[in-house]
User: Fold this.
Amino acid sequence: MEEKALLTINGKNYELPIITGSEGEQAIDISTLRKLTGLITFDPGYANTGSCISTITFMDGEKGVLRYRGIPIEQLADKSTFVETSYLLINGKLPSQKELNGFSVMLNDTSLVHEDMRHFFSNFPRSSHPMGILSSMVNALRAFYPEIPERSEQEELNLTVTRLLSKIRTMAAMSYRISRGHSVVYPRHDYSYAANFLNMMFETPVRPYEIDPDLVKAMNVFWILHADHEQNCSTAAVRLVGSARVNLYAAISAGICALWGPLHGGANQAVIEMLDEIRQNGSNVGTYVARARDKNDPFRLMGFGHRVYKTHDPRAIIMKKWCYKVIEKLNISDPLLDIAMELEEVALKDPYFIDHNLYPNIDFYSGILLRSISIPINMFTVLFAIGRLPGWIAQWKESMEDPEWKIQRPRQVYIGLNERDYIPMSERKDK
Ligand code: SDX
Assistant:
């Protein structure tokens, strides 16, 4: 028996269906609300609004649960690779060995970037932020790889998906190398996805880069943890822009722009900048926790809090473990890790953070891991974007395949001026 929500407006009763997800979460289906009542809902930031039904990722913010296609993130981080997890997210199932080999061959075969694109990279100002370069270059891919009419829609899609997954990694490394005035390192057919990225970033003619399997595993874990997160800001942007039936490259470029924000994917860079500021100001973490509490101070503790998680972000727990593993393996010490640990300890005991359910999110430790692998800070969010790409693709694909899907166009509540006449210039006054 379908449950109903009862609504009374101006003395009139309305029934709205309640839909229940496969994990028991429930939603009031308001898709007929305006037709039935003439009213719309109002939910700035969509904190109470579901934009779609989805089979891709499940999160439980109260229990700190995250699963991709039903598989817990802890198992994928432990047992899978980023390429295999990308296949899982995009195709809905773990690949057979044959399917995985075929996917890897396609990723290898599409890993080079059109040579003419290099002129774009070398003409960006050296100070350009890599996220701005990445969103431009991803959008430019359509110009360099136009649709071929002879290909079937499925062939075109498969090629576009593997091109994006493979080239985003090559373009990220290219933007870094060119920004440093270094020669571009090409991808190698005998390296895995993550090993290729590290090699393209750090190999030099005078100092061959030695592939460390532990760092390759750490990169895979980093990207698996970032691979999808249901309807976050950047995924919502990909779905919204994609709903206008624009090509996939353009929709992904929109997602990259949204992720750039310091309240979203840009937080991993903002966390390191915050920890470094704390260190430079005498490492008094209590001062910063007090500032984060202070309503008159716009300062927020970067890497803390989450729209959905009201307990520990399960990804942060795994990321923290890998910070230690890599730092121990490389036999380095990072004072920012010590400050992060102290900050976490102080904040988690602070009544304000407890009352507001503020816990470390994935960005709190991810920057420390990337620093230990010598990734420059302005590339942190680019690495997040590489990880989130399979999730964006999977979510875009699901929306395009939804028979109910239509262009996204929210409504509004207007509180501006009521009707008034045009004022001739002669009657206008300066403020
Ligand atoms: C990501 O959505 C996703 O899934 C995102 C992500 C993904 O994988 O895609 O998980 C990746 O973006 C993680 C979040 C990274 N951002 C940060 O670490 C930036 C710092 N965090 C905050 O700005 C904030 O917590 C957000 C943006 C993450 C969430 O904001 P919400 O859900 O809109 O919460 P809010 O801003 O309404 O805050 C609720 C209360 C407020 O206090 P009151 O006015 O109710 O008294 O909590 C306070 C806020 O002031 N608060 C914080 C805080 N975060 C929220 N106070 C101090 N420091 C913080 N970090």
Summary: The beta strands are 4-9, 12-20, 26-28, 57-60, 65-68, 71-72. The CA atoms of residues 169 and 197 lie 6 Å apart. The pocket of s-citryldethia Coenzyme A is lined by residues 45, 229, 232-233, 263-265, 267, 292, 300-308, 356, 358, 361-363 (CB under 6 Å).
